[in-house]
Design brief:
This protein is mainly α. The protein contains 8 helices and 4 strands; from the N terminus they run H-H-H-H-E-E-H-E-E-H-H-H. It has a two-stranded antiparallel ribbon. A two-stranded antiparallel sheet has the order 3-4. The protein is globular, with a radius of gyration of 17 Å.
């Protein structure tokens, strides 16, 4: 790959029933006894460290441009990571379900710091955010990555989000905040629902609400809207 990254140190991070159940259960059992192969996985490089909402507009925009500039490389790095761990990265609901199970069943805190997720897992979610976002753009080409400044109350303020939705023009979407929050849920509740990746992707699709409900019912089965 042609992009060169500067060396960087570990950083602490803090944040505020599926289809084909038999296959999912088998994968879950396998995941619980496996260890994650992080070999050769470089952490997501942050240009300017700090909460996006607390950075200056210039600094936050620089982070957004940097994120887009490394997007293709980070998606390749993500694909290599998941392949080393037995999951072929692709834009399918089945893949997102497998990634969710792998994430849930192997989540761990930073060594010596039980309050924060292992930094590799935070980096993984940042990479997955770019992959899922670009996958949505491939499905709905009118969507685009844009720098969000509409509301300071939004968790995505001064971050890159998907915009350009036709069904709900005011809608914007980014995945990593919610997925990282679920990482903390999985730390305290190891058996919590492994359906969030599929649900979040479906919520971000540019389709009518009734079509989304049918899609989630098909993919996750009855009770998808009441995850344990």
């Amino acid at each position: 790959m042609g992009f060169s990254q500067k060396p960087h140190h570990r950083q602490k991070w803090s944040h505020s029933q599926p289809k084909k159940a038999a296959v999912r259960q088998q994968y879950s059992m396998e995941a619980k006894v496996m260890s994650v192969d992080w070999s050769g996985y470089p952490l997501f490089p942050i240009l300017i460290v700090g909460r996006a909402a607390e950075l200056s507009r210039q600094e936050a925009r620089a982070n957004f441009k940097h994120e887009l500039s490394i997007k293709e490389e980070r998606k390749q790095i993500l694909a290599e990571l998941t392949a080393r761990n037995g999951i072929i990265l692709e834009d399918t609901y089945e893949c997102y379900a497998k990634l969710n199970l792998w994430f849930r069943d192997n989540i761990s805190p930073e060594p010596g710091d039980e309050k924060n997720l292992l930094v590799e897992w935070v980096s993984f979610v940042r990479d997955l955010n770019l992959f899922m976002g670009d996958s949505l753009i491939a499905r709905y080409p009118w969507l685009r990555w844009t720098f969000y400044t509409t509301s300071k109350k939004s968790r995505n303020y001064q971050k890159g989000v998907l915009k350009g939705y036709k069904t709900v023009p005011t809608m914007s979407f980014r995945f990593d905040g919610t997925l990282i929050s679920w990482g903390y849920v999985y730390l305290s509740e190891p058996e919590a629902s492994p359906t969030v990746f599929v649900r979040q992707f479906a919520y971000a699709e540019d389709i009518p609400a009734e079509q989304r409900e049918g899609l989630l019912l098909k993919q996750l089965g009855p009770g998808w809207d009441r995850p344990a």
